[in-house]
Structure formats: structure tokens, C-alpha cells
Amino acid sequence: MRSIAVCLVLAIAVSAFNTEGLSRSAQKHYEQLQQSNWGKAILELAELHASTGGVLNDLVGAIEEMIQQLNDELEELEYNFGVRTNEHNADVQNLTQEIQDADIDIQRSTDTLDNLLKPRREQLKTKIDNLQDNQEFNRKTLAENELIREQQHEEFELQITEYNEAVAAVDDALNLLSTLTNPSLAQIKKFQNSLRKIEARIKPHSKHATLIKALITLAAEQNFSDQGIIRSIVDNLNEFRNAVVDAINDTTAQEAVNLAEFEERVEQLNAEFAEFGRQISKVNIDLVATQEKIDQFTAFIAQRESDRATSVALLDLENEQYAEETQIFTDLRTKYQKDIAVTEQAFELVKGIDFSRIKV
């Protein structure tokens, strides 16, 4: 245990001395010393010293030196344990702070994820869905407008065809009337057929339908020998022809207006569609950036959770090691204190006894 203890072991073989010459107080100290190995070792050293005729002062000095050495070693033990305790407290404080910092980081990052980034991601996704719905509705509207425009154009072409055929029929009738001076029955029939062709080209609800029907009725009742009747028919046919030509011009003009409105509408719809696309691209960029932040925060939380688990494990290990070291220190300090007390008892005993008078 100590350097002096090595020397004491050499004295173990020495036989016990006779304690008949001791006082009652000394006898009590002697018996107390006999109760511990360390006390026995000191007594054996004293017996050895007496048996060899050693000087008592040397023995007293040796025991005093032993007491001082034990106190020095106890002081060193307590100092080292104090240093270890300070290190332990610092380690516990640092690890506890690391755990608290990790908890704060985890909580803040989780709050940011749950209350900011994830809701924003859902908002951006919803916005993209709405914009895509707008694009889909835009294309549907464009298709409807294209269909309406196609129908309008087909109706225009059909109307122009009917008008042109009506003009051609009127021209045929006028040409035929110009040849009727003393018309034959066959010529009259041919003229009447020309009027029916005109009627066939005119829609029943047209404002000119009544005029054509009146001319057909008039032609059916005439033999066209009266030139006044013929001129009246010619005038009416020319009036009708002019009206049809005006209708052609009006229909053509309306077609141009319809086409311009359609092209303007198509341009507007295409511009809206492109704008929706630009907005989707912009929101997608924001969505990608938001998702990247979510990934970063998720990875950061995982890292901080790992850091926290490491700090907790280190803290538990430190506490366990310190508990073991504390137990070792307590046991050693108790042993030192006990040995010092025994040695001090031996010192008092040795100072009060003349070993030269004791039989070995």
C-alpha cells in the first residue's frame, strides 16, 4: 500500500510479545490495535524494534513519518478526486447543455416544418392544381369558341351560296323576261319555274319571301302580253336582287367581324394560357425550393436527434463512471482514515511504553 508498508511485511514473522507489563490504558490501546491488520503490523514492527534493541525515538519517528505519509496520501487522494469531480461537473454541464441545445434545435425545426414549410408546400401544390384547372378550362373554352366559329363560318358559306344562287336565279328570270314579247306557254312556264327557284333559295322567314310569293302568284295569272305588268315584275325582281346583294355584303361584313372577334378571343385565351403556364413555372420553382428546405430541416432534425442520443449516452456513461470512481474514492478515504486513526493510536501507545522492559 505504501513504501513503509513493504518494510512492515517483513516483520510479520516476529512472535507476539508479552503484554503483562502494560497499564490498563495501554492494554486497551493494544487490544484496539490488534483488531486491524494495520495495527497488528505496527505492533509487530514495535516488537521487532524492541527485540533488536532499537532506539525508541527511532520507532516514534518512524510512526510519525508514517502518519504524515498517510495524511499526505489522503490529501492527494482527496485533491485528485476533487479535480475529477470538477471535471465530472464540467462534463455533465457540457453534455446537459448539448442535450438542451439539441432539444431546442429539434423543437424549433419541427415547429418550422409543421407550421411553416409543410403548410406552404400544400398551399403551393393547391395553387398549381388551381392553375392547371384554369389551363384546362382555358383550353376547353378555346375548343368551344373554335367549334362556334367553325359553325358560324359554315353557316356563312351556306348563306352566301344561297344568296349567290338566288342572284343567279333572278338574273335568269330577268333575262327571260327580256325575251317575253308574245311569250309562248312554254316560255311562261319557264319563267314561273325561275321564280320558284328564287323562292327555293329564300328562307321562309326572310323579309323577301312575301315579295317572291306575290310575284309567283302574279306570274301564274298573267300571259305577259301586258308590258306594264312585265315592267312591274322586272322592277320587283331588281329590287329583290339589290336586296340580296346587300344581304351578301352585310353577311360578308358580319363574317369579317365574327372572324376578328374570334381571333381576338383566341389571342386572349392563348395569352391567359401562357400566363397560367408562367405562374405554374414560378410556383414550381418555389415548390422545389420549399421541398429542399423541408429535406434540409428533416435531415437537420435527424442529425440533432442523433447528436442528442450520443450526448445522453455519454452523460449516462459519465455518471456511471463517476459513481464507480466515487465509490472507490469513498472506500479508499475510509481505509486511509481508519489506518491513520490506528497509526495515531499506535503512536500514542509507543510513546507511553518502554519496550525494553517488555519480554518478547
Walk me through the structure.
By secondary structure, the protein is an all-alpha fold. Helices cover 86% and strands 0% of the residues. The protein is rod-shaped and about 180 Å long. Mean pLDDT is 80; it is low at 1-22.
Mean pLDDT: 80
What structural class do you assign from the helix and strand content?
Answer: mainly alpha
- The number of E-state strands comes to 0
Q: Describe the largest sheet.
A: none
- The tally of helices reads 7
**Helix and strand run:** HHHHHHH
> For the terminal residues, how far apart are their CA atoms?
28 Å
Helix content: over 70%
Approximate strand percentage: under 5%
Q: Which consecutive residue ranges, at least 5 long each, have pLDDT under 50?
A: 1-22
Gyration radius over CA: 64 Å
Shape: rod-shaped
Reconstruct the topology from this structure.
Layout: H1 3-9, H2 24-33, H3 37-51, H4 56-178, H5 185-201, H6 209-221, H7 227-351
Helix pairs in contact: 2-7, 3-7, 4-5, 4-7, 5-6, 6-7
